[in-house]
Design goal:
170 residues, alpha+beta, Immunoglobulin-like, 5-stranded mixed sheet, 3-stranded antiparallel sheet, 1 helix, 12 strands, 16% helix
Length: 170
């Protein structure tokens, strides 16, 4: 009888420890990074103006995860401009690590270009599009309201930085 009673207590103790461990793991799983790529519908995207200086121009595409979202953004995202055929887009983000987002948290991509040419040497895009990798992940297209970019032979490049954790700092 005592042996069966001890076994019963042992089984109950193992079950309780397993349940407690499972509860602890499940509670911390929300805080752990996910390998699920972000989809356009999980994020709010905005174009944030940067601080210009000495002909240099900056802006950031900022992504903020919607409530209840947990996903990862690749460290390098493809960016295209619409309506500025004389401007070349160059990724300056090789080998960047992914950024993990959860509800309310932000990440951003810095965009850099020059604006020193005469008006006839510049182009103003209609929009900027950022692709989100993954099957069916989608794109975020934002109206370009950051002014003209140089589009002449010596200066015609929009540089795209890596995805960085945190909101744009401008």
């Amino acid at each position: 009888m005592k042996l069966n009673l001890r076994r019963g207590f042992a089984v109950v103790a193992v079950l309780a420890a397993t349940a407690a461990g499972g509860a602890l793991w499940a509670g911390s799983a929300v805080a752990n990074p996910t390998d699920q790529p972000c989809r356009a519908g999980q994020l709010d995207a905005t174009l944030v103006a940067g601080s210009p200086g000495a002909g240099q121009r900056y802006a950031s595409v900022q992504f903020t995860a919607k409530r209840g979202t947990a996903c990862k953004l690749a460290g390098a995202l493809p960016v295209t401009l619409q309506g500025a055929p004389g401007v070349t887009v160059v990724a300056d983000n090789a080998g960047a690590p992914p950024v993990y987002l959860a509800g309310g948290k932000s990440a951003h991509i810095v965009l850099h270009w020059t604006g020193i040419g005469a008006p006839e040497q510049q182009q103003t895009p209609g929009s900027v599009t950022v692709g989100l990798p993954g099957r069916g992940a989608g794109v975020s297209t934002l109206r370009w309201d950051q002014g003209a970019l140089d589009a002449f032979s010596e200066a015609h490049t929009l540089y795209v930085g890596a995805v960085q954790a945190g909101p744009a700092e401008y």
